[in-house]
Design goal:
about 200 residues; alpha+beta; SH3 type barrels; 3 domains; five-stranded antiparallel β-sheet; 9 helices; about 50% helix
């Protein structure tokens, strides 16, 4: 009985992971470690995944980070690799839409990206979003608790709320519209605006 219990405990014991502590590494560092490991041992995804104690999908998702366009670099250590891959797939189909979104959302959260990917499924969304970004050279600026914010016109807010981008911190979130003060128009690209009028 004791032998069977000991045998069962040994079988249920999780294998020791043969890699550094990934929790203390950035996603890019993990990707570079995995690539070097595969190159050194001439392994494929499955052999590498088994060695480090993760799934083949984990290996694939991290290797894709090394193949992304430069525009995705700021996202690598902020967003889950699986979500970055979804954005890269959308970028291959609609590069202008993704690049406009990244320009207006330099430090997005996973929640921001998930919302954007959901909205981007609507074919009308892409057309409207790009037209607003190109054809409307002004944006609204205001104050919220003493902090300057830019009002985001490309997002649909809930009742009595508005989406804003905090200029100093880079945070994007919804706030109550009645908390905004000193709202005024500011020209984003005055030179382009003048040439467009001609």
């Amino acid at each position: 009985m004791i032998r069977q219990a000991a045998k069962g405990a040994a079988q249920n014991k999780r294998p020791q992971k043969n890699h550094p502590d990934f929790a203390k590494m950035t996603s890019l560092e993990v990707a570079q470690y995995i690539k070097a490991l595969m190159h050194r041992h001439k392994w494929g995804n499955r052999e590498t995944a088994k060695h480090i104690g993760y799934s083949p999908a984990y290996v694939t998702q991290h290797l894709r980070l090394l193949e992304l366009p430069e525009i995705f670099t700021p996202l690598i250590n902020r967003i889950a690799p699986s979500e970055i891959y979804k954005l890269s797939v959308l970028h291959a189909k609609k590069p202008e839409l993704v690049e406009h979104w990244l320009h207006h959302n330099p430090e997005p959260t996973n929640r921001d990206l998930t919302r954007f990917l959901k909205e981007a499924r609507d074919p009308n969304y892409a057309t409207t979003y790009i037209r607003q970004s190109k054809g409307f050279p002004y944006h609204f600026v205001g104050k919220h608790d003493g902090n300057e914010v830019k009002i985001l016109l490309d997002r649909k807010p809930t009742d009595d709320m508005v989406w804003v981008h905090f200029t100093k911190s880079g945070i994007i979130r919804e706030i109550k519209s009645d908390k905004l003060t000193r709202i005024h128009l500011e020209n984003k690209k005055p030179q382009e605006s003048i040439s467009r009028r001609k």
